[in-house]
Amino acid sequence: MPIAGCLGDSPELKRATESSLRRMQFKEGSETTVQECGSAILGAVADGKSFAGDDNLLPVDVVFDGRLFEGRELRAALELPADCNEAAIAASAYVAWGAEFPDRLDGEYAFALWDRRQKRLVLGRDAMSRVSLFYSRPESGLCFASEPMGLMGWNGVDTSLNERAVAMALSLTPPEPQEELPTLQKGIFSLRGGHVMLIGSDRAESMIDFWQPLKVPQLVVKDWREYGDALRAALLRAVRVRLPVEGLVASQLSSGFDSSGVTALTAQVLARQNRPLIAYTSVPAHSVNAKEIMGDRFSNEWPLAAQVAAMYPNVEHVAVPTDAVDWWESLDVMGDNCGAPAGFIRNSRWYLGILTDAQRRGAVTMMEGQAGNLTSSYNGGFGLYDLRSRKQWGLLYRALRNRRKHGGNWKSLLSSTWMPSRNAMARIQRLRRREVPGLFDLSMMRRDFYENSGLAKTEHSAMGATVEGDRTNGAAWRFSILRASEMGMMRSMQRRAFGMEREDPTADRRLVELCLGIPDEAFAPEGIKRELYRHGFRNDLPAELLSEPLRGLQSSDFLQMFEAWIPEWRAELDRLDQSALAGMCLDLPRMRKLLDDWPTMVATNRSSADMAYNYTFGGALAMGRFLRRMEERTGQ
């Protein structure tokens, strides 16, 4: 549950902490705990864990949000009683191992710790950023909270609109690796996952990046099948540690490898406990040919997903249509509870529909598999590039030959071997006198807003290339993309709005470390992409699913749904005309023109139309609506 606190010790700061906790409570009237630690104040809501130290044996105070997966082992290593909570474990771990102690804690958590002897505040988040923690620097001293709403009423915190953050969201531009993680409020920042922040009583700050999995040597095996077996074992362990001891469990089940594998393993574990599993699959509400949008996709994922569900008698399979709930409701629930708008609009209706039905049934946990493309089912996309970079010419020749034998064309194989950066590709296209769309072209920002944001100056620079991730090698690229995935507020949204935990075993830290230790080309043994996963799950999933060459397209009927809502989109644009914030950021005339161009766009190229109306128009509309509603609430 949420935590909050600050440097300093005064009645005003204690009241500010109490108010922060009340704003973040999931249920009105929840109990709060506030500790006055001398030069700091720490607080937690309801079942947030707290620990009060003493000046002699354990001079550390802690508040802790989340859980640890290896609590028993940690208690034994630290010689702690079996009934001590996670906050007490964190306190003892800090004293025993120093400020980098989170490197030894496997779990999903955020914490705040006051060191009485060194007079410093220590903030930290889990390696995979699954639990959120935010901070600000008002004149009274640094303050922190689990969610931005916990800081927005704090005296001295600048909650005015962060225009650069808006521009970054509209263009899907992540912050630089060394940049503080911004929010839509100028004075509020998110602590990076896998980091510890140290703040002294003199307000001096330092940061520790405690998670360094790329420094571990690569895993070498005699037979590539050992990798596949290890992947399955790691994912099974990740599923087990996330399942609740009691209560109904649900899962999202598509026709993809990741959600299917998570659902299958979850069903197996629950079956041994005589417990059911509700598996949800999104199905198109309209008939559609997905190949018109993406040539390698199919439109309806239900048939293959149903084969997975049929393998496990304890699974109840439920279909949820893509238009399950009102579009405005889906966008508003996510925006209100995440503190930021949805980046895309295509999947929001069925996603909320699944959560709504699971809540109605009393589910306490929702299992997902969103990170799997970079972990368990990774396709070895950097394998050829890594072999070329290491000048392993014999292995590269063999890998190219194998991939060619399994259907790879020379153009794509050579591109995968060279892997030119986005900026390099842009230069090549310009030399060929071809138009290269930039961040501005792919968004609906006003030109002056885009220029003032500073993004125009970095787009074609080395700094701008950071949006592609670290391209040193395949493991570095995957790690950089995974670290940029900020999912803490999605967890908070699901807990606050639906009363259930959001669990993704494919984002498990131990699984990630294993996958980063496997050479990229090993993920495509004998030239067959994702063959490690097929081997590992050969007994868990239907052969038809594992051998399917095409992939399902979620919300394949997006264009049909969008067209039916065009009157609603126009009405919202009229409302945005009255919003100063939306008008400052968005090019509303350009958005109207894109709507006017609907018939031509859809008739000319449905693939381009799908991107334009989901990402370009949809992302801008979601941002505009979020800003308009924020403006109405706060009077900004």
Plain-language structure description:
- This protein folds into three domains: 3-211, Aminohydrolase, N-terminal nucleophile (Ntn) domain (Glutamine Phosphoribosylpyrophosphate, subunit 1, domain 1, 4-Layer Sandwich); 225-377 and 482-552, HUPs (Rossmann fold, 3-Layer(aba) Sandwich); 565-634, no CATH class.
- With 636 residues, the protein is an alpha+beta fold.
- Strand 10 (181-182) and strand 11 form a beta hairpin.
- It has a seven-stranded antiparallel sheet, covered by helices on one side.
- The chain is 42% helix and 15% strand.
- The two termini are 30 Å apart.
- Helix 10 (383-389) crosses helix 12 (410-418).
- It has 26 helices and 20 strands.
List the helices and strands and how they pair.
Blueprint: E1 3-7, H1 11-24, E2 32-36, E3 40-45, E4 49-51, E5 60-68, H2 71-77, H3 86-97, E6 107-115, E7 120-125, E8 134-136, E9 143-145, H4 163-170, E10 181-182, E11 188-190, E12 195-200, E13 205-209, H5 225-242, E14 248-252, H6 257-271, E15 277-283, E16 297-298, H7 302-310, E17 315-321, H8 327-338, H9 348-361, E18 363-367, H10 383-389, H11 393-405, H12 410-418, H13 422-431, H14 447-453, H15 455-458, H16 474-484, H17 488-498, E19 501-503, H18 509-516, H19 531-536, H20 543-547, E20 551-552, H21 558-564, H22 566-576, H23 580-585, H24 588-596, H25 598-604, H26 606-634
Parallel strand pairs: 14-15, 14-18, 15-17, 16-20, 18-19
Antiparallel strand pairs: 1-3, 1-9, 2-3, 4-5, 5-6, 6-7, 7-12, 8-9, 8-11, 10-11, 12-13
Helix pairs in contact: 4-14, 5-6, 5-18, 8-9, 8-17, 10-12, 22-24, 22-26, 25-26
